[in-house]
Amino acid sequence: xxxxxxxxxxxxxxxxxxxxxxxxxxxxxxxxxxxxxxxxxxxxxxxxxxxxxxxxxxxxxxxxxxxxxxxxxxxxxxxxxxxxxxxxxxxxxxxxxxxxxxxxxxxxxxxxxxxxxxxxxxxxxxxxxxxxxxxxxxxxxxxxxxxxxxxxxxxxxxxxxxxxxxxxxxxxxxxxxxxxxxxxxxxxxxxxxxxxxxxxxxxxxxxxxxxxxxxxxxxxxxxxxxxxxxxxxxxxxxxxxxxxxxx
Length: 247
What we know:
By secondary structure, this protein is mainly α. The chain is built from eight helices and no strands. The protein has helices at residues 9-33, 35-46, 57-87, 95-119, 156-162, 167-174, 179-200, 205-246.
């Protein structure tokens, strides 16, 4: 018995090549068309020429701060569940899938943070165009000497949401029919966190796209590593159910 999605050439095309090509084209289109500034201009204008939602309860406290704590708590819950599964025989089929989920989420967040540590880009609220003090400097542009470094690309908070794209593969091993719900959950969390941060002036849309691309890449790569163990877990689950039926 296999886990879903199945591997092979079709998987490489549908889960690796096409998604990453889509992310790359979207990021290039945003850069060439000025889509980041176009969207940020309108969000800024709708708030009266300021980032009025920067410190609002919903965007700052509820979604940004509480959302971060909720994500950490959920990840800790996955780790605790994995520890319990290691001690309880009836939970044995969940060991590999839970380990995958914990590792994939953590690696996604860490990879986003790592790229953010050297990318050196500013937040919209830092730019003179939106009431800040710094000029816009693109990702591949030479940053002027003396200009304070930026730390806003890719989007860390949105990455905390998109990290849960790995639910697609976790549920593919545990409840294959639910895997699309897992994918939808990861996309929904990433969009929720990302849009809230854009409304605050903390990120451009391309920052969120980059985070989604990183998290999906990590989820796929980690799945390839854990897939053999997840297949064994699926077979163990099927054997356990068969023994229970015979009993």
